[in-house]
Amino acid sequence: MNYFLRIAAYLFHPLLMPLLGTFLYFIITPRYVDPELIRAKLIAVAIITLLIPLITFYLLKNLNVVSSVQLEEVKERKVPLMIQSVLLLLIIKMVFDPYDSIELYYFFVGILFSAITALILVFFKIKISLHQMGIAGVTMFLMALSIHFKINLLLWIVLLFIANGWVASSRLHTESHNYPEIITGFFVGVVPQFILLNFWL
């Protein structure tokens, strides 16, 4: 059980959530998208939101700015969240066009607002679950896609809600977060995505 709970922190790491949301969109969308374009977009998202942050993490670790990939101390989150916000802004400006990929464009705008909110909370020494924030944002996005495309995605949505519970249990089990931090992380992930539905749903 210990291993089962701990593995959720790696399967649903916050750095993987933008890529997961993008991947699910391309699986679900009824619109025709050129396979080469899909591949290019996924590679771009993987490089910007996953590869660059990982390289940056090892640099920050060598500089003693962070101690672990879990960013357990509140003060350690400041620089990584700043860098992540800049990278998300890069995706919004360079990768997804609001006219061609409006759903993904606002999905990443929502992620950016979540990251900025988490960063602001850091300045007030408030720690939230970034894992919960990430999976909750993807869940809200998938629910919106189901309504937007009028497609029954109940199975996917149920699986993501199970993933939310799995992540929450994992973070509590490892004592990485308490209940308020989990709940706050959930709403920081969901609310920006929900608000931005007004622009594309």
From TrEMBL:
Superkingdom of the organism of origin: Bacteria
Q: Which UniProt keywords apply?
A: Membrane, Transmembrane, Transmembrane helix
Which residues lie in coiled coils? none
Would you tell me the protein name for this molecule?
Membrane protein
Please tell me whether the keyword ATP-binding is annotated for this protein: no
Q: Please list every transmembrane segment annotated in the UniProt record, as residue ranges.
A: 7-28, 40-60, 81-99, 105-124, 136-162, 182-200
